[in-house]
Amino acid sequence: MNTSHNLFPGRLYSLDVLRGIAAIAVVFWHWQHFFYVGDIPKDFNGIGQPLFELFALAYQHGSLAVELFFCISGFVFFWLFSQKIADRTLTARRFFMDRFSRLYPLHFVTFVGVAVLQMFYENSHTTYFVYQQNDLYHAFLNLLLVPAWGFETGWSFNAPIWSVSIELLLYVIMFITCLTRQARYLVIPCLIVLGYNVYPGHYKLGSGIFTFFCGGVAFIFMDSLMKQVGIKLFLLIAALVATTAWSFVLLSQTLNVYFLMGVAFPALVMLLAAISCAFPTFLRPFAAVGDISYSSYLLHFPLQIIFAVAVDSMGSGRDIFYSPWMLALFMTVLIPLSYGSHRFFEAPTQRALRRASHRKNKVQATTTI
């Protein structure tokens, strides 16, 4: 199947913004960490969290933003790479080196930072802050970026990295799947069924496989249909599908997580992508929200340790974290810190690693010739 690249803009700003919003939703979900003693919340008043009425959705369901991450990634990776992998124009070395250069540097820095901060925290509190399995074995798993592959015995170090760990595995599965060329259209539904069945017992792996490849299917559907009916008509179709799916979610008395992950999330991603195809500059002024999504996701937990240590050292009770002013202060630090991390560390390091890798490839090719 020839991908309709001419119908897609160079960048889907709408999905960048959605990814950034999802990252911030995780920060709200983890606000409860400030009320933990060890790995158990103590005297925690969920509805008392700062500005709860305004951010209730994120406070109560922010954990599901990780599944939204997976869905966005599935859509974007199938858009950008599936055909290149199938055509053998993108090598495994290039693909995985580019992923490594994007993900590993900040992971390593935050892993080391959390390890140091947890030592300080444990010295004064007798337990670690929230995540307790901070031993050499789990350090080894984290260094290999496999702390969520089933080898772990609990949460460790900068635990939000678990979703990145699963994504790394998903990239491997996707790459192998796309190498099967046309057969991938049979393999992908099998993977979705596998994720669906694995999810209850192994939710990290199951949710990743299920939502990532549902996102991939959303791209395949959009790519195929949009070439036939055009951008404008497809936008109407995507709007109808998304409206129907989210009406079902919002009007249901109980949340069907499978429907949310497998239908509503892909429908939302597809709609926003369609809007970006119809209006390429849609949400471009807010592109920075997406740029800092990875840094805000990995930096918020070590920043929480710093805030907790600072408050405890001043003798203030943790109830201070129910104050909207503490939320405002935390975000005032996190967002500029994330921007600085992206601009002055992540992006330059990524460029340097990719240049070094590409130069090495050229040298090896010349030597071979």
Could you explain the architecture of this structure?
Residues 13-334 form the Acyltransferase domain. This is Acyltransferase. One of its GO terms (cellular component) is membrane. One of its GO terms (molecular function) is acyltransferase activity, transferring groups other than amino-acyl groups. The chain crosses the membrane at residues 12-31, 64-82, 103-121, 159-176, 183-199, 205-221, 233-251, 257-282, 294-311, 323-345. The protein has helices at residues 13-29, 52-61, 65-86, 92-125, 136-143, 162-179, 184-198, 203-229, 231-251, 257-278, 287-291, 293-313, 324-368, and strands spanning 36-37, 40-41. By secondary structure, it is mostly helical. The protein has one domain (5-368). A two-stranded antiparallel ribbon has the order 1-2. The radius of gyration is 21 Å and the shape is globular. The protein starts with 12 loop residues before the first helix and ends with a helix. 40% of the residues are buried. Residues 363-369 have low confidence and may be disordered.
